Amino acid sequence: MLERRLIGVALHRWGIDPPSPFVDPRNPYMSDAARTSSTALPTRHDDQPTGRGRGLRRLAGLALGVLAGVGGFVDMGGVITSSQAGAQFRYALLWTVIPGIAGFAIYAEMSGRVVIASGRATFDLIRDRLGARLSLLPLAALSLVNVLTLVVEICGMALAVQLLTRVSYLVWVPLAALALVLVLWRAGFEALDNAAALCGLVILITVVAAVRLHPEWGQVGRSLFHPSPGETHPAGLYLFSVVSLLGAYMTPYQFEFYSSGALEQSWTGDDLVTNRSSAIVGTIFGGVITIGLMVAAAQVLHPAHAQVRSLADAAKPVATAFGEVGLVLFGLGTFAVSAGAGLETALSGTYSVCQYFGWDWGKQPRPHQVPLFHLLYLVMFVLAAGIALTGVDPIALTILTMALAAVALPFTFIPLLIVANDRDYVGEQTNTRAINAVAGIILALLIVVAVAAVPLLIVTGGES
Amino acid sequence: MKAVSPERYGRIELGKHLVDKSLLDRDDLRCGKVDDLVLDLSDADPGRPPELVALVTGPLAYARTLGRVGTALARGIYRLLGIRDPHPVEVPWSRVRQVDVMVRLDLSRAECDVNAVSDTVRDRLFAHLPGA
Amino acid sequence: MHLTYHQIVGRRVVDRDNRPVGRVVDLIARSPDDRTIRVTGLLVGRRALIQRIGRDRWNLHPVVVGWSEVADLDDEHIRLRTRRDDLRRG
Fold first, then answer.
1. Residue limits of the PRC-barrel domain (chain C) (predicted)?
2. Which residues 359-378 of chain A have a CB within 8 Å of chain B?
3. CATH (domain of B55)
4. Measured between alpha carbons, how far is residue B112 from residues A394, B36, B115 in Å?
5. DSSP β-ladder status, C20-30 and B12-13
6. Residue A448 is assigned to a structural domain of this protein
7. A379 touches B at CB < 8 Å
8. C-alpha–C-alpha distance, residues B120 and B130, integer Å
């Protein structure tokens, strides 16, 4: 109400008659109404945080970013692809962590900045900018990968329980799906996602295990910064592994989850710094864990010419270093990171569809207030649990899904880049040249490996 | 407040500045997207520029833009939910209050009747679930 | 007669001699008074599409067809009363 009157006053004062109801959309700060009404329920914006509240909020923001980094960078996909890479190629794929970290941090920061500057959700902007038809492509790619990723994370939870109880994972699949649904339905999301991420930190055991297994540090360091082809394996398998690793580091759901989370917590301009630092800190954290997984697998599995065919195989390095205790910690860690990632994947899926169609969304309101938001993830869980229960090899599916994720990434990155460079939406907060340059390099790398992945998928049949 | 530039809107590109924007009702609640526009072409004088008379929104309006397959799919979903007589929602242009980054209507969401699907989901599916 | 935006956008435009001009990318409208919006022209062709996806400041001078140049609308085509070579670039 107030804004409307103020705009009217301003127009009158400048002696301008606006043609019809059109008002310039270029400056996103023009109308506060645009900002407040962009999240699901405007009432929550009435409480402006001050003093201690603001500090807490910033801390919460930092935590969101760090957790997104850890819980995103390392999930079931990360555990399997990194262990497999270490087993098959020893240190030869360590270099992929560097573009992985750079890409994740750059695009996470970009998606956070875009929603903070525009006050609007990612897919809202993408559809607005590209139109319903063109933007259907990124939405479809993201949704497909989201459902498959959800299968992977549910299987990750179920396999972790199998590792600890020796009861088949198929028994645990419906229970794992049900547990995640209950968390989202009862709005216990925030607390449980944080708990999951905290528990997921026990996966740090792999880093300790890697140290304890006495790797050749000099070679580890060199491999990180010098891409080298695998010596004993065909180039096809090597490239395919690069694809699935990149997909595992930067799974598409992370960016939608991260930016929508920022919007739900109504981040503002002040939070840009938090956005930047949390994107970087979280990613580096995740990168260290990934290096730990790969190095530990290289120490134990590679010399034995062993492959990762089950979660138990991936647990061997930790079990070798710490025995039964290591195995249990690894199982718990995998369960926790998969649960966290599963929640985030489901939310990412429902966020993006709701934003595309302009429906109410948000995890704070009760299900009866935002029915379609809740219906969408229910459908996703039914689909995902159904696929998992067909008994499809969960490890092969994980690696294949991560490769598909890498193929889908350009579809989400390109629209994001377009929006992040458009002053109509982000005002002064457009990408700097440096960010565009790095983002472009990562995108080019992704497109090259994604294009290479398609024939390689056929040649290797998704088996690694 | 500062950046109101009618000169920019001396020329409006309908696809860019209006279609696919988010709709908000008078209480700032979401009403979907501007899925299509209705233009009135004078029968007597087809050379006269068509006038914008309404915005169209809702799943059916959206599906129509995707062709026959889209429409069939949307009708199927409506049938599955048991909604009778589904129709795209038309909002007269006269009820549009302001267009900026969003399209703001001079109507309440209930008046626009855009909530058929979400209300049905709430009443028929969620009513029996605990904690909804 | 009522037309919808999506019935016009995406249609092929041909000139008086049936030579293709391109597809309609967007509709240009003006507001002669405070409330009414009238479609005054069509943005047509590949340049318009690239500019739509890219940036305004690329300024690719896409083809702009005034509504007065439209002779006939059928289900597939929009026929112009002018020749392709005489069209204006925006």
1. 4-80
2. 359-360, 366-368, 370-372, 374-375
3. 2.30.30.240
4. 47, 15, 8
5. antiparallel
6. yes
7. no
8. 17
